[in-house]
Amino acid sequence: MSRKLTEKPVAIASDHRGVALKRRLSGWLGAHGYASTDCGVDDEAARVDAMDYALRIVTEIKEGRSDFAIGICGSGQMMAITANRFPFIRAALLHTEAESAPAREHGDANILVLGADTIDGAAAEDILKTFLETAALGERYAARRARLARLDISTT
């Protein structure tokens, strides 16, 4: 049984190494009734900085146009590191479907990050499905998320 947790478009971006996986996941989103916002890049030959595209999906969430986003780069590391610089972002670099549910349930992750060089397309689709259909848990997990939000030290 599937359930959609958002009606807003899912923002999706990649660097040059993640273009093929981004295209595949964009197709998956459309086939499963999700709108998406493509935040780039479209050219596998044009070398770009993943950081720039992480900032684009962060902006989609910050400005309320998306509840969820997907970031893809070679390892996934730069997308995750960049996105997690913002206190309202909870980006999870995932490698297996088994990691996807706890990332949402326990951490209320709002950005799924994938390494294009480390995961195949079918596994990425499975991770995405679970990510988008798993709700955050309440009680102690909500308290943890509130505590996490208070850890922002960027104003000091």
Kindly list the characteristics that best describe this protein:
alpha/beta; five-stranded parallel beta sheet; 156 residues; globular; single chain; Ribose 5-phosphate Isomerase B, Chain: A; 6 helices
Folded structure, characterized:
Helix 4 runs parallel beside helix 5. Helix 4 links the parallel strand 4 and strand 5 (111-115). By secondary structure, the protein is of the alpha/beta class. Strands 2-1-3-5-4 form a five-stranded parallel β-sheet, with helices on both faces. It has a single domain, classed as 3-Layer(aba) Sandwich (Ribose 5-phosphate Isomerase B, Chain: A), CATH 3.40.1400.10. Helix content is 42%, strand content 13%. The termini are far apart. The chain has helices spanning 19-31, 50-62, 77-83, 97-105, 121-133, 140-149; strands spanning 10-14, 36-38, 69-73, 91-93, 111-115.
Write the layout of secondary structure elements.
Elements: E1 10-14, H1 19-31, E2 36-38, H2 50-62, E3 69-73, H3 77-83, E4 91-93, H4 97-105, E5 111-115, H5 121-133, H6 140-149
Parallel strand pairs: 1-2, 1-3, 3-5, 4-5
Helix pairs in contact: 1-5, 2-3, 4-5
Quick overview of this protein structure:
With 156 residues, this protein is of the alpha/beta class. It has a single domain, classed as Ribose 5-phosphate Isomerase B, Chain: A, CATH 3.40.1400.
Tally of helical runs:
6
What is the string of helix and strand elements?
EHEHEHEHEHH
CATH H-tier superfamily: Sugar-phosphate isomerase, RpiB/LacA/LacB
Over the alpha carbons, how many angstroms does the gyration radius reach? 15 Å
Supply the CATH architecture.
3-Layer(aba) Sandwich
Structural class determined from secondary elements: alpha/beta
Low-confidence stretches: none
Helix content: 40-55%
The CATH class is Alpha Beta
Strand order in the sheet with the most strands: 2-1-3-5-4
Beta-strand level of the residues, as a percent range? 5-15%
